[in-house]
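Researcher: We're teaching a course module on how sequence relates to structure. For the next exercise, students receive a sequence and then see the predicted structure as tokens, so they can try to spot secondary structure elements on their own. Here is the exercise chain.
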Amino acid sequence: MVSIKPSAHLADVRYEIRGALTRRSRELEAAGLPIIKLNIGNPGRYGFDTPAHLREAIAHRLRDSEAYGHEQGLEEAREAIADQQRFRGARGVEVERIFVGNGVSELIDLSLRALLQPGDEVLLPSPDYPLWSAATILNGGKPRYYRCLAENGHQPDPDEIEALITPRTRALVLINPNNPTGAVYPRELLERIVAVAARHRLLLLSDEIYDEILYDGTPFQPLAEVAGDLPCLSFGGLSKVHRACGYRVGWMSLSGDPVRTTDYRDALQLLAALRLCANVTAQWAVLPALENAPTIPLLTNPGGRLHEARRMVVEGVAASDYLDLVAPAGALYAFPRVRADRLAEFDDNAFALRLLEEESVLVVPGSSFNVPHSRHLRLTLLPPPEQLREVFLRIERVLTRMAGEQKTRAVA
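Model: And here is the predicted structure for the students to work with:
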């Protein structure tokens, strides 16, 4: 029998957040070994509840959810999103320029499919959320990465971004607050990045799914306000801020001068129509999510569970002989790094496998986020704080064993 060959497009596509390490963790669980999983930002799996008023809104509208909806999303949901974007200072936002999808993931794919010709380039952060790279490649594009180094607080350098631009560059992607680093970009930095995009007529794509998950008073600056009349797609949704990942409700808002984006908007509508519509049932939760008082500050303010989990991670790194960290200012993750002066030889994939096999902890290697020669690992802030304390004890044990093995090899 001749085996079925997969598409060559997949050769450079990676998604290790749910990859080989996760498959191995399932095997270990099936054998009866409990695994501490820190690989996915999935609040419902860690005991976080979706706000009750979102559930109630869906329950009351079940009978209204049995037919196909508008290809761009329910009218009341899109009106609420447009109101939010206008309140945040976005220009040119109207209901017909709002698109609701089955999560932001679907909309990332649609936004790039509507934009790219084969060989077009997209500027992406390194580290990035790997879906952005995957969607670029699968839609015939080429990722070009600008660095967000720990030495610079995981902030991008606008001069480096501009140096990467070629005649084939079409778009510039920002992830703010950032996954995986937790960096939050100040207005001054965004203004410089917008100036680069304006000079080179690039479409701005701003992944803002963690927009309200902020720590220690860090402000969030929406990109659309800074972009003004420059075309900008802003992405948001219910998954993270509202702890409703399983609802699969995301949205994107097209702002800026409508004249410059009419054809692109129409292309987005065509692609939205081809998949008929997004999940109708869960869209009833959008209006109450956006018009009611936010619930996330109860978790991110001092004493809240996410705030305390972040504090535990910062303390765990500070107590380590091997790790350093740029403390996350937002989002649901930390991106600690193994110090080269303490462990000269380090392979993040090998370490992650050892941590899983030897200490029953699942993390994601930093190289999974398109960081070459990474010494980082990503872990989520969602587990209970005391469990995170235990995680750092286990990480330290593996790193200590690795350091001892290196020392023994050096002596030999």
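Model: If you want an answer key for the exercise: The two ends are 50 Å apart (CA to CA). DSSP finds 15 helices and 14 strands in the chain.
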